[in-house]
Amino acid sequence: MKIVLFTHPSFLRYQSMPRFAQMIVNGMHSKGHEIKAWSPKPFFFKWALNKPKLEKWFGYLDQFVVFPIQVKIRLLSTDKNTLFVFADNALGPWVPLVSNRPHVVHCHDFLAQQAALGMLAESKTAKTGTYYQSFIRWGYRQAENFICISKKTQTDLLSFLDKKPKTARVVYNGLNQNFSPADNVQEVRIQLSSQFNIDLSQGFLLHVGGNAFYKNKMGVLEIYDQWNQDFAGQIPLLLIGEVPSEQLKTFASASAATNRIHFISNIDDKQLQLFYQAASVMVFPSLYEGFGWPIVEAMASGTLVITTNEDPMKEVAGHEGFYVAKRPSNTEELLNWKKKAAQVVENVLQLSPEQENLAIAASVLRSKLFSAEEFMDAIEIAYQEILETK
């Protein structure tokens, strides 16, 4: 096959999307296919001089004025049997450029779309953001073929389309790093304790994720604080991801367990793998997700996962996950939610060694459903079928 992969521009500094795109590039290359990546270059963006507002608007010029012109020129010399792949549904505005050629759009989540339409009570979108999401929606609605990372994402996609697509199949994400259980968990904990100057010898609660509202980082802090109150918990909480917001830091400072709450940023992939291996339990009570990478990453690392009792988190963790209800927006219900979630944490931590070993073995086995090899095999089949039925 000849494939052109549309990807996000590198100057937008995304993290997970470049990894996803690179996984496709590497996987298709390894299978003997010819694949090229197309993305905007920073012509106007580089003149923004690190001013966020200018970067935003100059970036739009590069993405939606300069790049479409470049694409139209490239198409003149591109083989007619080329498959055009969009690494993300957020790249919708470029879909019309190749809508009359074989194409497919990878769909990750529609949270920004839902927020812009007022469908998410926890998130409000500014007017300019609403227009931008409408522009994205106008674009991907012109596509005919889609690949969704979960059944939840598939359901959301179909709710936004004007007509039934030719294809809208589900292909679960594959792990794009080598996550596996530690040979000796205690040695890893000692290593991390020394490296980060935190006593992790007795284990720790772990959360991995950014500061986006749907990651529910505040909920993680609330659960941990309640667990400390109700069960006199002593092991630390580590939140790995972006530098915490002022709101998160304020809550952590006011907690009776403040000395055991640690925000950790700017770690490399190897360090992340070690944290997953050494954790006592992963706490991942997201409000919404498209898939939920950390769930599988933790399971593959031999760490049990507590997550939200809703899809796609349930879809990914399956019977091997431990569940809490979605955090309520009603403050009157919040205390009850925190107490019940804290009880789940305590229940997992109090598993007998035999119960824990069985649960870990089941989790590791579950994670193998989301291998990079199975992902690449499935999308290769999907790509070939789209080309054959163009």
Structure description:
There is one protein chain. The protein has 390 residues and is an alpha/beta fold. Helix content is 46%, strand content 13%. It contains 14 helices and twelve strands. The strands form two sheets. The protein has a six-stranded parallel β-sheet, with helices on both faces. Strand 7, helix 7 and strand 8 form a beta-alpha-beta unit. Helix 6 crosses helix 9. The longest helix has 24 residues. The model has no long low-confidence stretch (mean pLDDT 94).
What topology, given as strand order, has the largest sheet? Answer: 2-1-3-4-5-6
Number of helices: 14
Mean pLDDT figure: 94
Structural class: alpha/beta
Question: Helicity level, as a percent range?
Answer: 40-55%
Uncertain residue ranges: none
Spatial separation of the terminal alpha carbons: 14 Å
Strand content: 5-15%
Give a quick account of the main beta sheet: strands, pairing sense, barrel closure: 6 strands, parallel
Report the principal-axis shape: globular
What's the helix-strand series? EHEHEEHHEHEHEHEHEHEHEHEHHH
Number of strands: 12
Rg of Cα set: 22 Å
Can you describe this structure in just a few lines?
With 390 residues, the chain is an alpha/beta fold. It contains 14 helices and 12 strands.
Secondary structure blueprint with pairings:
Elements: E1 2-6, H1 16-30, E2 34-38, H2 52-75, E3 83-86, E4 103-107, H3 111-116, H4 127-140, E5 145-148, H5 151-160, E6 167-170, H6 185-196, E7 205-208, H7 217-231, E8 237-240, H8 246-254, E9 261-264, H9 269-278, E10 281-284, H10 293-300, E11 305-308, H11 313-317, E12 322-324, H12 331-349, H13 353-367, H14 372-388
